[in-house]
Write a structure and sequence with these properties.
This protein is α+β, with helices and mostly antiparallel strands and about 450 residues long. Helix content is about 65%, strand content about 10%. α1 runs parallel beside α5 (about 190-225), α4 packs antiparallel against α5 (about 190-225) and α4 (about 120-185) runs antiparallel to α9 (about 410-445).
């Protein structure tokens, strides 16, 4: 009897040492009272008043600083359209001259106005307008990508929070089981070793819970940063992974919509138009231009002369003279006709056309890949939901009842409990995979559901 008790004590001490490795040292078996950690799930989940994915996307589109910077670039491009529509400024020249040896002097005022012939100004306006189109499509594409990123991070954070919820439920059940086993140990109906084994398993679940909560907290901070919230601002998520199997349009319809609506493709086409506008501008700039000029000059001679007018009166000649001039200055494109600029713009247009063709091919591939991923993920989720999770939960209940009746050992129950935890994690992961695949479909097709504008 002494050897048996000594062996049991040694095993209990060994189990206590195993628990101590994870930083949770427990007293002897007879005095083990494990206090359940306070639940932190309320800091992250609120199914009634928490933020949904749609609300976070709307908040991000309004407050994300990077997106705000892109909007300022669009405003700058709008200002450049206004600038391009302004006419060329006239020039004014004022001068004076004086002979240092005589009283002779002169004053001169000249002005000129560029004409901007052969459509220079309209060509400049078209270039600015096409640059504005590119900026607007760039903004739309950044909104699309940001909405997809927010929804992705929302789903990942929600999955971690659901795992934390399940771990806390498991921890509550394990705590209750530990208390029952401890009572049996105190009454002498169960060996102390069994109590130590339950304590080790309980503390293992506690360690899992702490790790799970840390992951949720980190993911929540990343989500706040993505939507434009400070790390200290309160945020709780609402919603779940229901309605993941809502019908989607057919692959052909979705591909056609993507080829028309995707802002990155529209931006490539806008760059093509911009390149053509630059070709037209360069050609217009390589043609002849002209400027109108007009001037007035007043001269005074130092040695006046006399003469007779038509009436025979004596008048001074050459004392003062007023000169008006009008002219046209031509810029002749003899050497520089913007040949290099035109050639560069043509090459840019060809490159833009190649990028558009490659972009269309990429869009088709992305949409097809997203649909394939969604189909496989949704099938796996349904298999988990119908044929794995519920059955695993039933199996755990059966093993627990048979253990309480003495037909199964504690090790059998612990093994089945661990298997159920893995299956539950796998089911949540399958829900997350389906959710992410659906987000990818929305992103690839640029569905209005993505941004909810």
């Amino acid at each position: 009897m002494f050897r048996i008790r000594s062996t049991i004590s040694i095993l209990a001490i060994f189990a206590t040492c195993v628990v101590g490795i994870s930083g949770l040292f427990l007293p002897p078996v007879q005095a083990q009272i494990v206090v359940q950690s306070s639940s932190g799930l309320g800091r992250y989940l609120d199914l009634k008043n928490g933020k949904s994915a749609d609300e976070l996307v709307a908040f991000a589109l309004e407050h994300n600083d990077e997106l705000q910077a892109v909007r300022r670039e669009v405003e700058a491009a709008e200002s450049m359209v206004t600038q391009a529509g302004l006419r060329a400024n006239p020039s004014l020249e004022v001068g004076a001259a004086k002979n240092p040896y005589t009283p002779s002097n002169s004053y001169m005022v000249k002005g000129s106005l560029p004409l901007e012939l052969f459509g220079r100004r309209p060509a400049r306006i078209r270039v600015a307008e096409k640059e504005l189109d590119v900026r607007r499509q760039q903004l739309a594409d950044r909104e699309r990508m940001l909405a997809a990123e927010v929804r992705t991070k929302f789903g990942q954070t929600l999955a971690l929070a659901l795992k934390l919820q399940f771990v806390e439920e498991t921890l509550a059940a394990a705590t209750e089981n530990y208390q029952l086993v401890s009572a049996r140990v105190d009454e002498g109906r169960t060996a102390p070793l069994e109590g130590s084994m339950v304590a080790v398993e309980l503390n293992r679940i506690r360690a899992i819970r702490e790790t799970s909560e840390g992951r949720v907290e980190i993911s929540m901070l990343e989500l706040k940063n993505l939507v434009g919230m400070g790390p200290d601002e309160p945020l709780r998520l609402g919603g779940n992974f229901d309605d993941l199997l809502k019908p989607l349009p057919s692959l052909d319809i979705a591909t056609g919509q993507a080829l028309i609506q995707r802002p990155d493709l529209q931006m490539s086409r806008a760059i093509e138009d911009l390149s053509q506008a630059r070709i037209d501008e360069a050609k217009a700039g390589g043609k002849m231009d002209a400027s109108l000029s007009a001037g007035y000059e007043r001269m005074r001679q130092g040695f006046p002369q006399s003469g007779f007018n038509d009436l025979g009166q004596v008048v001074p000649i050459g004392e003062r003279a007023n000169v008006f001039s009008v002219g046209v200055m031509l810029q002749l494109p003899i050497f520089n006709r913007n040949q290099g600029t035109v050639a560069a713009a043509v090459s840019e247009k060809t490159a833009a056309q190649n990028r558009t063709a490659f972009g269309e091919l990429t869009v088709r591939s992305e949409v097809a890949s997203a649909y394939a991923k969604y189909r496989s993920a949704s099938r796996a989720m349904e298999i988990y939901r119908v044929g794995v999770e519920k059955q695993a939960e039933t199996n755990l209940d059966v093993v627990r009842q048979t253990y309480e009746l003495g037909s199964r050992t504690l090790l059998d129950y612990i093994a089945e409990q661990r298997r159920f935890i893995e299956i539950k994690d796998g089911f949540i992961d399958s829900q997350l995979d389906t959710y992410l695949a659906r987000v990818e479909v929305l992103r690839a097709t640029n569905s209005p559901e993505l941004t909810k504008k």
